[in-house]
């Protein structure tokens, strides 16, 4: 996976998030889907940051791993 792949995924998720918000989140299913999309976005941004940091410090960016939502959502830097 390349940075461009992660960025493409982010773009797709942002579009879906916009669509869901425009439709409204009146149902429980749409609320769950929106939360899931937001978690996926956070994971993608986290992965992109990991990849860029590894590249900056001479490490292999492909060694970056998607972290679980609990880790990403509760991260305190």
Topology overview:
Elements: H1 3-23, H2 28-56, H3 69-73
- What can be said about the biggest beta sheet? none
Shape: elongated
The DSSP helix count reads 3
Number of domains: 1
- Structural class comes to mainly alpha
Q: What integer value in Å does the Rg equal?
A: 14 Å
Strand content: under 5%
> Span between N and C termini?
26 Å
Helix content: over 70%
Quick synopsis:
The chain has 77 residues and is an all-alpha fold.
Structure description:
- The protein starts with a helix and ends with a helix.
- The model has no long low-confidence stretch (mean pLDDT 93).
- Helix 1 runs antiparallel to helix 2.
- It is 71% helix and 0% strand.
- The protein is elongated.
- It contains 3 helices and no strands.
- It has helices at 3-23, 28-56, 69-73.
- It has one domain (3-73).
- 12% of the residues are buried.
- With 77 residues, the protein is mainly α.
- Residues 55-77 are annotated as: Disordered.
- It comes from Ramlibacter humi.
- This is DUF2630 family protein.
- InterPro entries: Uncharacterised_Rv0898c.
């Amino acid at each position: 996976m390349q940075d461009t792949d992660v960025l493409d995924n982010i773009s797709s998720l942002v579009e879906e998030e916009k669509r869901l918000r425009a439709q409204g989140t009146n149902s429980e299913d749409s609320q769950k889907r929106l939360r899931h999309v937001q978690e996926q976005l956070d994971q993608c941004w986290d992965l992109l940051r990991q990849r860029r940091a590894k590249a900056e410090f001479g490490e292999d960016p492909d060694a970056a791993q998607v972290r679980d939502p609990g880790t990403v959502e509760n991260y305190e830097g």
